[in-house]
């Protein structure tokens, strides 16, 4: 009876050992699986970290580029405003020159008419006094008229030269202003494009940070 009791005890202990062995084997398999999973997660975490660093670096570069573009935009805007002001001053200067030239010509015409009247009066008196001075007085009168017309001719020529110079300057300023405006437009489009890239990068960065937090959460 004692031997049977001992055998039963041994069999019972063997059953317990078998269950413990199976439990240990299952736990070992589970641990191996967890280890493989953790290794894969670690690799993904390293990749995510590298990608995160690349995104941060790209973001810094884009921010620097945006800052540079903004400075160039501001500079072009200031330059455009300066050229517009110069063009406005040129127009005002030309208007003043025309106004001044008009009054100057009026004064010269008045002076010329006054000289003519004086010459005619002298001519009449000289004719009445003595016929022999007629040719001399006539030549003198013609010489004075020629001298009187010479400044007017020079004034007209000078006005033409000034007008041509003004038109050339005006055309040059308008062309440069148009070029600045075109460059400003292109700069604005480039700025908007870079800003859109930066916004897309920010959204991607937020997604990567969310994944990183998910991996670092022990409950997952």
List the helices and strands and how they pair.
Blueprint: H1 2-129, H2 134-216
Overview of this protein structure:
This protein has 220 residues and is mainly α. It has one domain. The chain contains two helices and no strands. The longest helix has 128 residues, at 2-129. Residues 112-117 and 149-156 have low confidence and may be disordered.
Task: Summarize the structure in short.
The protein has two helices and no strands. The protein has 220 residues and is mostly helical.
Any key phrases for this structure?
220 residues, mainly alpha, 2 helices, 0% strand
Major beta-sheet overview:
none
Total count of strands: 0
Mind telling me the C-alpha Rg?
51 Å
Proportion in β-strands? under 5%
Q: Give me the number of helical elements.
A: 2
- The secondary structure category is mainly alpha
Question: What best-fitting shape do the alpha-carbon axes yield?
Answer: rod-shaped
Could you estimate the helical fraction of the residues in percent? over 70%
Q: Spell out the helices and strands N to C.
A: HH
Overall pLDDT level: 68
Count up the domains: 1
The low-confidence parts are 112-117, 149-156
Report how far apart the termini are.
56 Å
């Amino acid at each position: 009876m004692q031997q049977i009791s001992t055998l039963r005890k041994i069999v019972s202990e063997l059953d317990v050992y078998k269950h413990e062995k199976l439990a240990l084997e299952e736990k070992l398999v589970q641990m191996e699986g967890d280890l493989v999973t953790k290794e894969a997660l670690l690799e993904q975490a390293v990749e995510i970290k590298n990608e995160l660093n690349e995104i941060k670096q790209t973001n810094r570069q884009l921010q620097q580029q945006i800052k540079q573009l903004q400075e160039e935009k501001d500079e072009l805007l200031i330059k455009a405003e300066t050229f517009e002001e110069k063009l406005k001053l040129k127009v005002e200067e030309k208007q003043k020159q025309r106004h001044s030239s008009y009054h100057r010509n009026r004064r010269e015409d008045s002076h010329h008419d006054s000289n003519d009247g004086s010459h005619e009066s002298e001519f009449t008196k000289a004719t009445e006094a003595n016929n022999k001075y007629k040719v001399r007085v006539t030549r003198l009168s013609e010489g004075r008229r020629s001298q009187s017309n010479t400044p007017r001719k020079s004034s007209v020529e000078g006005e033409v030269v000034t007008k041509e110079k003004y038109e050339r300057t005006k055309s040059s300023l308008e062309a440069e202003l148009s070029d600045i405006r075109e460059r400003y437009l292109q700069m604005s489009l480039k700025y908007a494009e870079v800003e859109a890239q930066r916004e897309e990068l920010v959204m991607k960065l937020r997604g990567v940070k969310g994944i990183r937090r998910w991996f670092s959460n022990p409950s997952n």
